[in-house]
Specification:
This protein is 41% helix and 22% strand. It contains six helices and five strands. The longest helix has 13 residues. With 133 residues, it is α/β, with parallel strands linked by helices. It starts with a helix and ends in an 11-residue tail after the last helix.
């Protein structure tokens, strides 16, 4: 019964809208489900050894609270090399915004202001109206 509960939980998008991708299979599961639900996906590609990438983790969590209709994924490039390679991630941190399975924007580097500006331009309708910068 516990295993059934875990399998059902894995098949649903996470309620927090922030998930750590730990395998290529989980990557495809999250992206496919988001596409089926018409949900944009914002991915933070980083590495545990990359200080700028680690510094962006709290900002990424803040974005997830602001843009609640977007699925936020975190991918450690050393743990899930196949996904990082497929997405052509060459530097950390790299942020990728996807809609309907296609990359619509890619940002390299830790610049919170630029990321927020691009997010605001791409998904103004997803932003919670009571949030103030």
């Amino acid at each position: 019964m516990v295993m059934e509960g875990q399998q059902q939980q894995e098949q649903q998008l996470p309620k927090s809208r922030v998930a750590k991708v730990d395998s290529e299979e989980s990557w495809y599961l999250f992206v496919t489900q988001a596409n089926n639900q018409g949900c944009p996906v914002f991915v933070h590609f980083g590495a545990s050894w990359c200080v700028p990438s680690l510094a962006m983790n709290s900002f990424f969590e803040e974005l997830a609270m602001t843009y609640q209709d977007i699925l936020f994924l975190v991918v450690d490039v050393d743990e899930v090399k196949g996904v990082a390679s497929k997405m052509e991630v060459k530097a950390m941190p790299t942020f990728v915004l996807m809609r309907d399975g296609a990359v619509v924007d890619k940002m390299v580097g830790a610049n919170p202001e630029e990321i927020r500006k691009r997010m605001d331009g791409f998904v103004p309708s997803f932003r919670r109206p009571n949030m103030v910068d």
